[in-house]
Design goal:
2 domains; four-stranded antiparallel β-sheet; Rossmann fold; six-stranded mixed β-sheet; vWFA_dom_sf; alpha/beta; VWF_A; about 325 residues; about 25% helix; 10 strands; CLCR; VWFA domain-containing protein; single chain
């Protein structure tokens, strides 16, 4: 669970720093139950795989900060707390259950946090399903939400908001960072090979993303993974960089509905694991209500990987633009 002064972050890593002076750390793996809840609110029946133990448990925690005997000065400081709670069904003293919570505090201050130099590959899904609105199901056009997701612009196409976020990411990178942009549908292409941001025409790149990227075709997730990973594995400087100073990361913007290439969970998972073994870590941003949670749940358990599910344009921008430094750490 999250440590003192911190909320839990989906997929692990640093959590909850924005409103706190100190940082806490969330457990790794898949931790997002919001897709399940938002589907219910929108009038859809979620899949059983949308609800996971990790996803539910990360929303509930014991405050372990009061049990700290001295200030944390290390990167990780375990804290412990015990609790007694009546059984939620029986509610009698005789049915009370004991809990022990383990929290991870950190001596790192939020004000002192700085992400590493970044070798970043953004892989954008431009398949036909990305042309559907946030609040509808692309593969079941007969099903429409009964309530909708309360957010301005909720009917905006997923691809349009993804392009806005991609342009926002480009604007957040530093001159010493490196960037590549990969697009995939039936196959993958690399309109922006990996290279230093200081050598790129950032304004022109933003314009090209906005004007030239359109959705079409199937979803060959394998092609996206292979092309994105190759940008980093083929970069000798990236693979030889000091991991304590430089982060190699691939960020996928997708509704995760693979239907071409090797679309098996085992095959895609093996590719993400191979990248992780090479020190290349993955962030998956699941876009819309109908993204494939079962696939990203398994990927989210790979070392260094994380994922977020987003259901509205505003949430999408916040996850990857306003919280960018944490999403890539």
């Amino acid at each position: 669970m999250a440590g003192a002064g911190a909320g839990a972050a989906a997929g692990g890593g640093i959590g909850g720093a924005a409103a706190s002076e100190t940082l806490g750390f969330a457990t790794g793996g898949a931790q997002d139950v919001e897709n399940f809840r938002t589907n219910l609110e929108a009038g859809y029946l979620p899949l059983p795989t949308d609800l996971t133990y990790e996803g539910l448990a990360k929303d509930y925690y014991f405050d372990t900060s009061s049990n700290a005997t001295k200030p944390c000065t290390k990167l990780f400081c375990p804290l412990y707390s015990v609790g007694l709670s009546p059984d939620p069904l029986l509610g009698t003293p005789a049915s009370s259950e004991f809990y022990m919570a383990v929290g991870l505090d950190s001596g790192m201050k939020a004000a002192d946090f700085a992400r590493k130099q970044l070798n970043l590959v953004v892989v954008l899904d431009v398949s036909g399903s990305m042309g559907s609105p946030f609040d509808s199901y692309y593969y079941d056009q007969t099903v429409q939400p009964t309530a909708g997701v309360p957010d301005e612009g909720e009917t905006k196409k997923k691809i349009d908001v993804a392009k806005e976020v991609l342009a926002g990411i480009v604007g957040l990178l530093r001159p010493d960072d490196s960037l590549s942009v990969v697009l995939f549908s039936d196959a993958a292409c690399v309109p922006k090979p990996l290279g230093p941001v200081r050598c790129a025409d950032v304004d022109k790149l933003k314009e090209q993303i906005s004007a030239d990227v359109v959705e079409m075709g199937g979803t060959n997730f394998q092609a996206g993974i292979d092309a994105g990973g190759a940008q980093l594995t083929g970069c000798a400087a990236c693979m030889e960089a000091n991991a304590s100073l430089v982060e190699n990361r691939v960020v996928f913007l997708t509704d995760a509905q693979p239907n071409a290439g090797d679309d098996s969970e085992q095959g895609l998972l093996a590719r993400i694991k191979a990248l992780s073994a090479d020190g290349i870590y993955t962030t998956i941003i699941g876009v819309g209500l109908d993204f494939n949670t079962q696939l990203v749940e398994s990927i989210g358990k790979v070392r260094g990987s994380n994922y977020f599910s987003v259901h509205t344009p505003g949430e999408f921008r916040r996850r990857l633009v306003d919280e960018f430094d944490y999403a890539v750490t």
